[in-house]
Design brief:
Elements: E1 3-6, H1 32-41, E2 45-48, H2 53-56, H3 62-78
Helix pairs in contact: 1-3
Length: 83
Amino acid sequence: MKLIILDRDGVINKDSDASIKSADEWIPIKGSIDAITRLSNAGFTVVVATNQSGLARGFFTLDDLDAMHKKMNDLVDKQGGVI
């Protein structure tokens, strides 16, 4: 298996010192969604490993986190890739 493990904030989406707290604040870095799609289509298994300390600190809820990840997955799916 060819495996790619990516961090989320600052690699796939723009990072913020104040934490990304919602799907609206989750903005992909230019080219990141395309790169994930190309890796996926080239036979790599792409996974995202992310430490979201803002969840534990109460900056956002698990539903908010799910919405952010749904947005990320939907953007990749729309281009024909898989995370």
